[in-house]
Amino acid sequence: MVDLIPRPDRYGENGPDLETVNGLIQARIDGAISRRGLIRRAAAIGIAAPVVGVMLHATSDMVRGAASPGRANALRRLAQDGGPASAEAPTAPEGEAQTGGTITAGTNQEPDTLHPYVSQTVTAADVYYGIMDGLMTYDSNQQLIPRLAESFEISDDGLSYTFQLREGVQFHNGDAFSGEDVVAVWEIIMNPDFGAFNQNGWDKIEDITVDGNQLTMTTGEVFAPFMSYCGVERISPRSAIEAGIDPFKQEFGRAPIGTGPFQFVEWQPDQQIVVEKFENYWGEPANLDRIIYRIVPDDNTMLVQLRTGEIQVVASASALTAIRVEEALDIPGLNVLEHATQSWAHIDLKQWDHLRMTKVRQALDFATPTQDIVDRLLEGRALVSVADQAPGTWAYNPNIEPRPYDLEQAKALLAEAGLTPGSDGVYEGRVPTDDPNVGDGEVKPLDIELWFVSGNVESERVCQIVAQSWNSIGVKTTVLNQDISTIWGPEGYQFTERMTGCLYSWFNGNDPTDRFYWHSEEIPDSPTGSGGNLPAYFHEYSFQDKIDELTDAADATPVQEERKAVFDQIQELLHEEVPVIFIYWEKAFPAAIANLGGFWPSPFNYLLWNANEWYLTQ
Amino acid sequence: MTRFLIRRLLGAVPLLLGVAILSFIFMQLAPGGPDALFARNARMSQEQLDAIRRNMGLDRPTHEQLFTWLGNLATGDLGISYTQYRPVSAVIWDTVPNTLLLMGTGMLISLVAALTFGILAAQKPYGFFDNVVSFVSYFGLAMPVFWFGLMLQILFAVRLGWLPSAGMYSATGGGIGDLLRHLALPAFTIAIGSIAGWSRYVRSSTIESLGQDYVRTARAKGLAERKMMLGHVLRNALIPFVTVVGIDVPLYLTGAVLTETVFSWPGMGRLFYDALTVRDYPVLMGILMLGAVFIVAGNLIADILYGVFDPRISYG
Q: CA–CA distance from A26 to each of A60, A560, B37 (Å)?
């Protein structure tokens, strides 16, 4: 069995056997060997490459940012003098820690439901992470740490996972936790009548067997990210699941039951959700008595309430955005933190007319004052982006320089693409027909609609800056907006026969795979179809074959060093071809009253993930 | 009177049915849909997207969806919310009393203030008090709710610390006193616009009544000024005013959206706005129907009040 708690001292005469899958995983968790050492050793003893992928997920090495010194350095570099402090470790205010007390956290958005298998909102996970446990969970260093499972073992063929379950764990309703609960969770998630939001990982399981405190999940194929899905899924009591699909979906979602350090008390719709300390928690019971999660829809009101002390914590889904930080720093007694996110703001450039020409897109990139947007509008509280992998993560290619803001270069490129300023100063020229990079069709003006999702103040300001710059060189740009359900619906800009750009953000997941943004199979086949490759809806990219090949290769390569080489090439290609204009990596700014200790927010987990460790000082 | 009521209530049924069908059609015609956010999630597979559409009933033709919805409505079933996974009636019912409380208090404040200011201003048209009331009225009409609300919060919650800035109850709970303290700022915010408008109405209809022959007669026979104002002038001036208030009831419902958002008030306006953003059709239909019921009821009450204020009106 692999122990999830690192113990570097166990390496001596009787240390783990470095000839086995689990021995290597244990040694890596304990820090006795490096990631590279594990891969080398695994290759030496003949472990198949896909199984190495499984092992690297179990050691948390495969997931983004884990154990990467580059990441910590990048975070440290980001911290500005007098600005927010980097959220590298739990807060530790001076003064004596108290037991008891109440904390009021705030959110802009009410959770849709508190049901972990149905909810689509981060704000719901922010609450149920305090109420429910998984077999394991990610800490803020993105390392798997034990919860309902104490240790695990992976079979040599990478197909079965055995968990040693913790004994004496009680649900809030008094039920004893056992492997049968996990079986029931698997069954309900896979039940098509239930309609789970996500079946990732669970759909790979063929059988689950329970033998006392040992639970074995057997998969039909080697699936590397299995642990990062099923290993951290929240576990519900079997009795609640067996109450029937409708009660479990509707009632459980309004009053969830788990094994976590806090138990659900009440949910007053549109007002607040209250949880309180669970005395029979299996681990160290919480310091705080109560946590109240208040719903405050308006941004300005949230700042007012942080000032009056009516709200004491904002993080995760409700963390402050860059343009609010200056005001928050001004609030006495408020500790504003910052951490990187996996979210990149960019402008889609739809493959239509002139925008199909690489030179035109490159020209627009030269004419976009990215550095200015980051430095002036966002006051340095974001990172300029050049491609789709975040700085500080292992897949990031540090050798790409952003294009400088250079209007002359932009004009030169437009001229090379065959465009000339018309009588009204707006560039015009022949649009491509067959070959995307050759203008041989009718003459049209370079007239672009630039869209953003209404209500997003940051996007609106960025669009205005970009439009002003593009207009200044003779690219006619009109800023427009629509609400979120319209802009992503079948009548949205993606499906209109015009030149359009749209500013929004993609969120990268635990694994750096980026196939769903660029691959030809991800082009929606109709305006109601699925798929993330929107710009290529009317015409594929001129480099479509190449990006297809690279993104497929990245998914088929389990060994990180080789994968990184592929991602490096993808990023170079994206920077060269500018399918979208990369603008910035967002940062998040959690904040809490200065006398709250143990508070450790990160992009890898949710608000209440370690709330049992929170404490107030005098 | 009873026959009048029955006739009006029966007449409301086809009206409400028409509202139901029209709002259903308009909602379907509006761009976007409840599945848009799912469709544009890059990690969503086509199979999962189809399953979600099936669960929502979006895979069936529009007219079939409408008839199912109407059939369920006849049995009192408003359906299940797309986003909250619980019955629409429960979702809406959680917010209705809160909105009615806020609206009711706001209207009460407006009525008292508008009547007082309007009558006083009418005493001496274009006098000093009238000019002050006019100025304040235009200010109140022109002020955006979100800005005025924020100013009240900064003044009363941050600077003075007298009142809580937002919410309906304190986080740790509270009784009726706590509720009233939370109610003060949003109720005043929602009232300010109609105080301005309504006091102008009361002022002009009072001035008009004051010029009537019966007022001169009343004055000539030596009726006390106060008695004359309340018994003759005001009573006549109120008839057009009641119409205006009746028409404004739906405005209060829509105006509640911003106030409820700024003050985190758990009301129907906010629910409607949130449901609209994600196209939660069942919730939207439920609220639209309830809104139609409110408007019908508001007009009916106004009609009944005409009779109370003016005995010449009969309900034959």
A: 12, 19, 41
Contact A307 B95 (CB under 8 A): no
Question: Which residues of B fall within a CB distance of 8 Å from A531?
Answer: 42
pLDDT per residue as tens digits for the range A390-428: 887 788 999 999 999 999 999 999 999 999 999 999 999
Q: Which residues of chain B have pLDDT under 50?
A: none
Rg of the Cα trace of chain B? 24
- The neighbour count for residue A142, using CB atoms within 10 Å, is 21
Q: Answer whether residue A441 shows pLDDT above 60.
A: yes
Report d(CA A515, CA B81) in Å as an integer: 33
Interatomic CA distance for residues A36 and A18, integer angstroms? 14
Query: Nearest C-alpha of chain B: how many angstroms from A102?
Result: 9
User: Domains in chain B and their CATH numbers?
Assistant: 19-90 (no CATH), 96-266 (1.10.3720.10)
Report CA torsion sign: A232, A140, B43, A540: negative
Residues of chain A in contact with residue B278, where contact means CB-CB under 8 angstroms, are 484-485
Long-range contacts of the stretch A438-446 (C-beta < 8 A, 24+): A439/A354, A439/A357, A444/A353, A444/A354, A445/A476, A446/A354, A446/A360, A446/A414, A446/A419, A446/A474, A446/A475, A446/A476, A446/A499
Pick from B49, B166, B277: CB nearest A296: B166
Stretch A490-502: mean pLDDT = 92
Give the integer Cα–Cα distance in Å for A448 and A450: 6
CB contact under 8 A, A529 and B46: yes
Q: For position A71, what pLDDT does the model report?
A: 42
User: How far is the C-alpha of B86 from the C-alpha of B88, rounded, in Å?
Assistant: 6
> Are the C-beta atoms of residues A383 and A396 closer than 8 Å to each other?
no
Please, are residues B199 and B134 in contact by the beta-carbon 8 Å criterion? no
- What's the whole-model pTM score? 0.83
From the list B43, B86, B153, the residue facing A250 with the nearest CB is B86
Q: Any idea which residue has 């250079």 for tokens?
A: A406
Asked whether the beta carbons of A375 and A604 are under 8 A apart, the reply is no
Which of A250, A301, A486 is nearest residue B264 as measured by Cβ atoms? A301
Dihedral sign, Cα of residue A324, residue A330, residue A331, residue A336: positive
Instruction: Look at B32 and A298 and tell me if their CB atoms are within 8 Å.
Output: no
Distance separating alpha carbons of residues B302 and A457, to the nearest angstrom? 42
| Residue B26 burial (10 A CB sphere; 0-12, 13-18, 19+) | exposed
* pLDDT(A80) > 60: no
CB A501 within 8 A of CB A581: yes
Question: What is the C-alpha separation between A575 and B215, in angstroms, rounded?
Answer: 83
Neighbours of A160 (CB within 10 A): 18
CB of A366 within 8 A of CB of A409? yes
Residue A175 has pLDDT above 90, yes or no: yes
| Helices B96-123 and B268-277, packing angle to 10 deg | 120
Residues 120-179 on B with a CB inside 8 Å of A are 146, 150, 153-154, 157-158, 161, 164-169, 171-172
